[in-house]
Specification:
The protein has two domains: 14-38 and 122-204, no CATH class; 43-117. The protein is an alpha+beta fold. The protein is built from eight helices and four strands; from the N terminus they run E-H-H-H-H-H-H-E-E-H-H-E. It has a four-stranded antiparallel β-sheet. The two termini are 27 Å apart. This is Transcriptional regulator. It comes from Streptomyces cyaneochromogenes.
Length: 206
């Protein structure tokens, strides 16, 4: 089912608020947020300025494929002896190098998480239980007052079965598939589904 619910979207001012977007856009943004949380939550917690944080980052960067290139891309061109000293914690990098090491670590971690979308799929599928999402309707403050709908509410839904396709669509920047998936989600809202074709925000509880 492909729909254009709110076919006259914008005729009465809803498009004056740039936060009001098609659900496919909001769903893609929510998935990006979930991916970012996965990158950060699973990463090294100790700051790079601490001995523990520095050693942990250097271990990752020196034992993970792509680490040396990530360091080079971040502007680190230290000698092998200096790299070993940083990794062992016997020498402390200058502040600019610490910042570059932190950048290299997070860039490499993000690359590796993105290269393994199966982890995000598993996280969202939760063994078939799915993930709860929060759907915020269009912000109507910019809508002409006589055309505002007073019955629109934040919706909560436990969403299953779409996540494999949604993550694949995110990776491929496939908004057509994302639109089809969003149609599937809002179809469960029965008669109200058309009012949530466009939304102001989607939150993914994962």
């Amino acid at each position: 089912m492909s729909t254009d619910g709110w076919k006259n979207f914008g005729n009465y001012g809803a498009d004056r608020d740039p936060g009001n977007v098609h659900g496919k856009i909001a769903l893609a943004r929510a998935l990006e947020d979930a991916l970012e949380r996965m990158i950060i939550d699973g990463g090294i917690k100790s700051p790079v300025g601490t001995r523990r944080g520095l050693k942990a980052r250097m271990r990752y960067l020196t034992t993970t494929k792509g680490g040396p290139q990530a360091l080079a891309d971040a502007g680190i061109h230290a000698t092998p002896a200096t790299i070993r000293a940083w990794t062992r914690g016997t020498q402390r990098p200058r502040p600019a190098s610490l910042e570059a090491i932190d950048t290299a670590y997070w860039n490499l971690r993000a690359h590796n998480v993105l290269a393994n979308p199966g982890a995000l799929k598993q996280h969202l599928n939760r063994g078939g239980r799915g993930t709860r999402i929060e759907i915020h309707p269009v912000n109507q403050t910019a809508v002409d007052e006589p055309r505002r709908r007073s019955n629109l509410r934040i919706q909560h839904r436990q969403v299953r079965y779409i996540w494999d396709d949604a993550v694949d669509a995110l990776v491929a920047s496939d908004l057509e598939t994302m639109e089809d998936l969003w149609d599937d989600v809002i179809a469960e809202l029965d008669s109200d589904w058309g009012a949530y074709t466009y939304v102001s925000y989607i939150g993914i509880g994962a």
